[in-house]
Amino acid sequence: MTISHVLTVEDDPLTANEIVAKLEQCGFAVEWVDNGRDGLARAMGDNHDIITLDRMLPGMDGLTILTAMRAAEIKTPVLMLSALGDVDERVRGLRAGGDDYITKPFDPDELSARIDVLLRRRSDQQPNDTTLEVGSLRVDLMSRRVTRNEVEVALLPTEYRILEFMVRNSGQTITRSMLFEAVWGYHFDPGTNLIDVHMGRLRRKIDPQGLEPLIQTVRGRGYILT
After folding, report:
1. Whose CA is closest to 201, among 163, 167, 152?
2. Secondary structure of 106-172 in HEC code, one letter for each residue
3. Which residue(s) pair with 51 in the sheet?
4. Which residues lie below 8 Å from residue 83, measured CB to CB, with a gap of 6+?
5. In angstroms, rounded to a whole number, what is the distance separating the alpha carbons of residues 124 and 102?
6. Between helices 108-123 and 13-25, what is the axis angle to 10°?
7. For the chain, which domains are there?
8. pTM score over 0.90
9. Closest CA to 142 of 133, 132, 152, 150
10. CA 187 to CA 169: how far, in whole Å?
């Protein structure tokens, strides 16, 4: 089994220890540096599978590191971490080349889930990988045709996007904020019942009466496709 290597650039030791403990528990190999200059030097090595990068760092801030990485064509996925949670700040981080953005304080389970999503997104970018399957569920990425037990399931565009995201990340807990980002492009939870409405419709189509449910609710956290 291949071990994924994570570089964590974080100046706060308590936060860093929390990140390292959680990711090592999940089977990652983690390297931690506590300042911007060392973080940039390690990031430029391009020998990590993913980087968690704090926005505010001594010596050099996270945006500067990220901009330098992308200018040097270092394509390692970067998950930005910041106590600066306003929309403009998140937009700056994403436009500078960040792949995702999570606001402090965060749940360690969500952090590890977001890392799993970024790693899956990277590994899924294979030209011949055009079909996804979970149990009796099959999604054809080229035709956008969905079947369960070889019976076609008619989905609306938004329902399809939700399902595709969940199938790509099957077995992982998907939070509401992750769905808002992946499907609607929101980097925050707008506090509506949008997901509940679409998820209800999707479940009725994917998990009709008489079939074992594939979509499960993880109470207080989100959903999982198993």
Report:
1. 163
2. CCHHHHHHHHHHHHHHHHCCCCCCCEEEECCEEEECCCCEEEECCEEECCCHHHHHHHHHHHHCCCC
3. 7, 78
4. 55, 56, 103, 104
5. 22
6. 60
7. 5-123 (3.40.50.2300), 131-225 (1.10.10.10)
8. no
9. 132
10. 19
Contact 4, 29 (CB under 8 A): yes
Length reported for the chain: 226
How many C-beta neighbours within 10 Å does residue 154 have?
Answer: 9
Side chain identity, residue 131: T
188, with CB counted inside 10 A (0-12, 13-18, 19+), is middle
| Strands 151-153 vs 145-148: parallel, antiparallel or unpaired | antiparallel
Q: Which tokens in the block code for residue 179?
A: 């769905």
CA distance 178 to 112: 12
- Per-residue confidence of the chain (226 residues) as pLDDT tens digits? 467 899 999 999 999 999 999 999 998 999 999 999 999 988 887 678 999 999 999 989 999 999 998 888 888 999 999 887 677 777 888 888 889 989 888 899 999 999 998 888 776 554 445 788 898 999 988 888 999 999 999 999 889 999 998 998 888 888 888 888 888 877 667 777 889 999 999 999 999 998 999 999 998 888 999 8
Q: Which long-range contacts (CB under 8 A, 24 or more apart) does 15-19 make?
A: 15/54, 15/81, 15/104, 18/108, 19/52, 19/108, 19/111
